[in-house]
Design goal:
The chain is about 70% helix and about 0% strand. The protein is elongated and about 55 Å long. About 30% of the residues are buried. It has about 200 residues and is an all-alpha fold. The protein starts with 20 loop residues before the first helix and ends with a helix. It is built from nine helices and no strands.
Length: about 200
């Protein structure tokens, strides 16, 4: 499994065996949950690929639910760090949104938004997924708001842009042509700016 370097697991950056058992489990869960889905990734596979014993696994994560919650918290930190860095690298204005998302959409292993995917899979069964997703989207909106001209409408515009980003993520996931999703996103962002 190879994911884009900027938001990949730490296993791409450091030697995995040097990490603690807990970190290996979390990094393995990150990669497998994102690549294959949470339901499709069983505990036995997580144990085998993290190279830990069943006892060690359950000592660190007494339930798969706890691991799912920590995976989403980890993903949030990694993704937001990459997102802010990429926006700054591309100029720090609303126009930086397009090359940033194009970079993500075109990355090897892109499977959409981990939060939308997790909510679709297990949102009704694990209520924490909903609140984690809400917090993540709020954080994305706050970041987008900093790219907009300072006005009383910046926050509501940012919320509308994040809604359009979510649509673009889904479109890029099933269409496999990020240019279409990005052109539609640009149209929405420009329309929001004219109101």
């Amino acid at each position: 499994m190879k994911f884009m370097k900027s938001i990949s697991s730490l296993s791409d950056v450091v030697d995995v065996p040097a990490k603690s058992a807990r970190e290996r489990i979390l990094l393995t869960a990150h990669d497998l949950f994102y690549c294959y889905g949470i339901r499709a990734t069983g505990v036995d596979r997580l144990i085998a690929e993290s190279k830990v014993t069943k006892t060690t696994f359950y000592r660190h994560f007494p339930s798969k639910k706890q691991l799912i919650i920590e995976f989403l918290e980890y993903r949030h930190k990694r993704w937001m760090s990459w997102f802010v860095e990429s926006l700054n690298r591309h100029g720090g204005t609303i126009d930086a949104l397009y090359p940033t998302l194009e970079e993500w959409f075109g990355a090897e292993g892109f499977r959409g938004c981990a939060f939308i995917n997790s909510l679709s899979e297990l949102g009704e069964e694990i209520e924490e997924i909903t609140s984690i997703t809400q917090d993540h989207k709020e954080c994305v909106a706050n970041t987008v708001a900093t790219l907009l001209p300072d006005s009383s409408r910046a926050k509501s515009q940012a919320m509308g842009i994040v809604l359009a980003i979510d649509g673009a993520i889904i479109r890029a996931h099933y269409d496999k042509n990020p240019k279409i999703a990005l052109s539609l996103l640009r149209y929405v962002v420009e329309a929001l700016g004219k109101k």
